[in-house]
Specification:
Elements lengths: L1 E3 L5 H13 L3 E3 H4 L3 E2 L4 E6 L8 H6 L4 E2 L4 E8 L6 H10 L5 E8 L17 H5 L1 H12 L4 E2 L6 H6 L2 H10 L2 E3 L9 H5 L5 E3 L3 E3 L8 H5 L5 E3 L17 H4 L4
The chain binds flavin mononucleotide and iron/sulfur cluster (2 copies).
């Protein structure tokens, strides 16, 4: 089984490509934590890098997975460029549960946070073709059951930027908010939020459990979700080209 966490579909898209190549199934992390996975002998974890670390939701949910300690476990990060501590922090949490991660790697994909800095993530779709051969290499490694780790743990940037404290600060600073003048209460953001952190009455209201995935900001048809009160540009809203909004929505 391949377990993914995804806000804008990159991790799900990569998970699906790997699953189809190795004949496996994909499951959202938020669903997988409710299941007994001890009969699975191969587990993939695929998730983004947020501020040089694993998303807070991934750090809190992965230790709750019911896994077989003898399973072949691998981690793939779908990130803009830098994985930082994203792999190391989860390896450490799993090791504390008696689970050794056998293989890890990262693949570069469009950076969905570029929109926050006034850049268009859609301008980065070239990464899919540029790094296609790397994905094929990763697939071959997983198929062969390799035991290897392809990332620099605790590089200087990760050591400074990739701490949980720094990530919490970044997430607080770049937290999305709802522009009530634009919101029409359609509820799409509430259905796509992987944390079930948005309530919609007449207008959307973001709760306290935001993991900063930006799924809401990228999916709002009215561009009513903003960061730093800066208008969201429709042309800059991004989702993995092969993933639809409904694919990311949680089961009721
Ligand atoms: C809050 C936030 C922080 C991010 N920080 C990083 C980072 O430190 N390094 C990086 O390479 N990409 C970073 N990104 C980009 C995402 O890792 C990348 O776009 C990822 O593929 C998104 O995955 P998803 O589409 O499955 O949600 C960040 C994205 C967000 C939303
Ligand atoms: S998706 Fe946008 S318009 Fe719809 S409820 Fe959410 S914020 Fe409002
Ligand atoms: S509120 Fe928006 S950014 Fe925060 S976790 Fe939910 S979808 Fe992601």
């Amino acid at each position: 089984m391949i377990i993914y966490f995804s806000g804008t579909g990159n991790s799900l898209g990569i998970a699906r490509q790997i699953a189809s190549a190795i004949g496996d199934t994909v499951q959202a992390l938020t669903e997988a934590v409710r299941q007994d996975l001890t009969s699975e002998d191969r587990i993939g974890l695929i998730y983004p890098s947020y501020d040089f670390n694993a998303p807070p939701a991934v750090r809190s949910l992965v230790p709750r997975l019911k896994l077989n300690t003898r399973a072949y476990v691998y981690i793939i990060i779908a990130c803009g460029a830098q994985a930082g501590n994203s792999i190391w922090s989860i390896r450490r949490l799993l090791k504390a549960r008696g689970i050794e991660v056998a293989y890890s790697n990262k693949i570069r994909v469009p950076d969905n946070s570029a929109i926050v800095f006034g850049r268009n993530p859609n301008d980065q779709v070239w990464k899919f073709s540029r790094f296609a051969s790397r994905l094929q290499m990763i697939i071959a490694d997983i198929r062969a059951g390799k035991h290897e780790h392809h990332y620099a743990q605790w590089g200087p940037t990760a050591a400074i930027m990739g701490t949980e404290r720094m990530q919490q600060w970044m997430i607080r600073t770049f937290r999305p908010s709802v522009n009530e003048d634009k919101c029409i209460g359609c509820g799409i953001c509430a259905r796509i939020c992987p944390m079930r952190n948005i309530a919609v009455d007449e207008k959307a209201c973001i709760g306290p459990h935001c993991t900063a995935c930006l799924a809401c900001l990228h999916s709002c048809p009215q561009q009513a979700i903003e960061v730093g009160k800066k208008a969201t540009n429709r042309q800059y809203q991004y989702r993995h080209p092969d993933v639809k909004a409904k694919d990311l929505m949680l089961n009721e």
